[in-house]
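Researcher: I'd like a structural prediction for the single chain below. Treat it as a standalone chain; there are no partners to consider.
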Amino acid sequence: MSNNTSRESFLKGALILSLAGVIVKIMGAFFRIPLSNLIGSIGMGYYQVVYPIYTLFLTLAVAGFPTALAKLVSEQRAVGDFKGANKTFRISYTVLFITGLISFSIFFFGAEFISTVILKNSGAYAAMVAISPALLFVPLMSSYRGYFQGRRDMTKIAVSQVIEQFFRVSLGLFLGYMLMKSYGSEMGAAGGVLGAAIGGFASAAFLIYIYLRNTKERKAEIAHSSHIKTESTGTILKKLLYVAIPITIGACVMPLVNMVDSVIVVRRLQVAGFDIDMANSLLGQLSGMAIPIVNLPVVIDQAIGMSLVPSISEAYALNQINRARKEAKTGLKTILLVVLPCTFGLAALATPIMSLLFPSIEATGPASLGTLLFVVAPSAIFLGLVYAQNGILQGMGKPMVPVMALLVGMLFKVVISYTLTGIASVNIIGSGIGTVSAYAVASIIEFIYIKKHMQLKLSPKEFIIKPLLTVITMFVVVKLSYGVTVGFLGNALATLISISIGGIVYGLVLLGIGGITKEELMSMPKGEKIYSILRKFKLMK
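Model: Treating it as a single chain, here is the predicted structure.
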């Protein structure tokens, strides 16, 4: 496979997964608010109690197996070991079925004990029972997604994600409404979470159908690799665990640190002189309003990271280090092209955006909502780099590096949050600075490792000067645009128009200063058609 074809496959996969991620996000946005209205605050209370526990069980059940599976399948297919790739999938499928079955059994049969003894909330029992089948279906679904990721067939994964979310949202709302109407808030919450189980089943069923439909092609591939000696089950399992365990640890680190950080922040704010209600309000403004806005590009970050894993793995399996470097550069540049305008755009319109999204909510503390968004906006850059670099490092076979980087970053977060939030004049802004610092430290550690071990050389002009020149120009134009239009158009229209102008300016300046090259554009999906249009309008040579 040529470098260009490989890069085309990587970018196409990232684009497909990004589009699916956006669709899933949009559908998800139309779930929580209607569900709250349908099952009421009490029902949502039961929902909120159960869902985080389900997420923890799911993380432990699925672990990092899909990524580990994708890496191994990609490597084995690269060297023509199709039989080994199929064996790796079957082993992963079996492991995930067992871990899913154990998690389901604990959740289903222990629902009464967990809800009444541990949670002290017997009303959550029905919701726990309702969501428990998802712990059977989602791990199975994840095994197929990992397999198709390893084959670099991102379309099937994207379709399965949309199917899962469609059934989760539509049936979750329908069942939540029907059960609330007939049996009350406990069963209403159960109906709401049951959508997750049905969505997991529908997605798994789709992937199984696709897998079985390709049986003939798969058998032909296996027949061609019959001369290659496959590794033992024990060896494959060790390789899977070598990648999966660090990813699982990493997946558990962030939620646990965030939980500890929440407790620290509230206590330190009280030390700074705020009462408990004000402390909770400040935490809610940061973690419930500002940070979710900054995390919007995450769906694209994740897509790029997912596409990088099999791409880098394949290059390393074939000992094509130059190709791996090119893939890594493409991934990092693509991430920067996405997160830099997001960050500078959010910073430029921080207050107008928060006023647009939360018109009925006024900041109850010393810092405005806009100030909080402005402070945490840079975390979009570093979080994006973390996702891309995680994909590169996992592809390189270095899954522990992201875990160690994240641990160090989270340690910075706790120390900085503890120190700064206890200062009355800084208060909740200190927690925001801690969040930015955490991702900055993690991304820098990962980048240093990748640069050293991959011998990666990045042009400062291409990766720093041109991108910064582009987004600074966009920042200034957006600021001016909003300032000129807000007086006679009002905040909402002025904000939306300024965002649109910012996007156009970003694209034009990027093309004008050569921020994206002809080669890079041609390697993208529909690149030739886009290039011909841009050339027609004399936007590219």
